[in-house]
Amino acid sequence: MCRASSFLLYRRVSSAWGRTLPFLSNGNRSPYGSVRHPPIRHIRSSSLSWDSQRGVKTDVDSSEFKKWHNGGGWIHSSAKVEPTVVVEIGAVVHSGSVLGANVHLGSGAIVGPDVGIGQATKIGYNASLCNCSIGDHCIIHNGVSVGQDGFGFDVVEGRMLKKPQLLHARIGNHVEIGANSCIDRGSWRDTIIGDHSKIDNLVQVRLAANSCVTKSINEPGDYGGFPAVPIREWRKQIAKIRQITKMPQSPK
Fold first, then answer.
1. Is 215 helix (H, G, I), strand (E, B) or coil?
2. Sign, Cα dihedral of 8, 44, 101, 177
3. 4 contacts 47 by C-beta, under 8 angstroms
4. How many domains is the chain partitioned into structurally?
5. CB-based contact 94:113 (threshold 8 Å)
6. Cα 118 to Cα 82, 129, 197, distances in angstroms
7. CATH no. for residue 217?
8. 3 pLDDT exceeds 60?
């Protein structure tokens, strides 16, 4: 899970009286009155971190981030970002990420380390992307989370132990994911969302081993199989296959 501090959504303009007047990004006067705080020059090192349980360093040097010229967001110096990319104020791009031409990140969106986003893809407000790649011409709506751990535990000697979640989520081209949906990373193999898939709002995709989404998903729930089907249906398929394999073979 990525965290980022809040960003001030106004710019400061000096008045004829020498005091600082806050203005909103649309040019209107802020309702919060005048302030005398010094301008923000970079992100505080304590305001950005990466979950230590994911095995990624948590110490983030704020000096490695720079304000992006197109939108006012923040990008890491090691990220590869095309000049046409828009990173709105409050959005953050972490180290090693690659953003193709005409990508648009909404305010509050977080792109974690080593994430790839294809050209002309739009990422909505407060979306969170980590351990994943996103294809070309995708629409990721507000609040979507991609690449986080799924709900996986093993029972060992009566104790619940977290199952390692070490793989990725791969989103194809021309995919649309509805608001506040979750696409978990894989634990056995990568979670794959095929080209042209459409996923509704509030859907959780937590795929079983060797699963792949090849068509649109309109209902929330767990899916398994190739192509992916609702998990109960997939389990029935597996049970039937086991029954068939256990049937006595007729003599040749």
1. coil
2. negative
3. yes
4. 1
5. yes
6. 11, 13, 16
7. 2.160.10.10
8. no
Residue 12 lies in a domain: no
Q: What pLDDT shows up at residue 105?
A: 98
- Which of the four pLDDT bands, split at 50, 70 and 90, describes residue 131? very high
Assigned domain for 35 exists: no
Q: Flag whether 3 is in a domain.
A: no
- Give the structural domain span for 133: 63-246
CA 65 – CA 95 distance, rounded (Å)? 9
- Report the half-sphere exposure of 132 (CA within 13 A, side-chain side): 31
Give the length of the chain. Answer: 252
Q: What is the mean pLDDT of residues 161-180?
A: 92
Beta-bridge partners for 9: none
Please report the pLDDT score of residue 92 as a whole number: 97
Residue type, 37: H
Tokens coding 75: 């990008």
User: Do the domain assignments include residue 1?
Assistant: no
